[in-house]
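A common beginner's mistake is to predict each chain separately and then try to dock the pieces by hand. The better habit, illustrated here, is to supply every component at once so that their relative placement is modeled jointly.
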Amino acid sequence: NAGVTQTPKFQVLKTGQSMTLQCAQDMNHNSMYWYRQDPGMGLRLIYYSASEGTTDKGEVPNGYNVSRLNKREFSLRLESAAPSQTSVYFCASRDRAGANVLTFGAGSRLTVL
Amino acid sequence: GNSVTQMEGPVTLSEEAFLTINCTYTATGYPSLFWYVQYPGEGLQLLLKATKADDKGSNKGFEATYRKETTSFHLEKGSVQVSDSAVYFCALSEKTSYDKVIFGPGTSLSVIP
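With all components supplied together, the output reads:
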C-alpha cells in the first residue's frame, strides 16, 4: 500500500536546466496537488488537478507546468530552473467523495545552483 | 480570498507541559478545518479535522474545536511528549471549492525532556 510516491527524492540542477518531478498515487483519488515548502512560508499551492484531464493554477504557478497523465500520475515540470525554485516539493492526492483528506508524498528536495 | 493564520513559533516546551497552537481563518463560506503534522524528514499527515461549527476533532491526545463565531480552530494537548516534536499546520478547505486546500505557515514545536 504505497500511497503517494514521488521521484526523485533529491535533485541538484544548474540554472536554466529543466527537469520533471514525478508523482503517482495508488488510492484511486480524483484530485492531485503540487505544493512547495519554504522556510517561514509554509506550504504554497503550485498547481492542482481536480480530475483526469483538468489542471488549475494555484498560488505560485509561474515557472512551472504540470501534466495529469492519467488518474494515477501528476507530474511537475520546471522548464528553465531558477535559484528561486530551490525548495522542497510535495505531491498530494485527495478523495473528494470520501474523507476529504490530503495524503502526501515524502517530498522532493530540489536545489538550483 | 481564503487564508489561514497561525502562531509561527518556534515553540519549545518541557515534557508534560500543556500545548496550545492558535489558528484563525478567513473564508467566504463554511470550510472544513484540519490540522496536519510533519515529523522531521517526512511529508505531512492528517492529525485531526472538523467539518462543521462546534465539531471537535481529536487524535493522539490532541484536540481542536471548530469555533465559527471566532473563526478559530486552536490545537491543544494536555501533556506533550518528546515524540510530539514536529511542525503543525492548520488548513482549510472550502465546501464550495473542494479542490483548494489552503495551509497556514506552520508552527514548529520542540519538546525537551
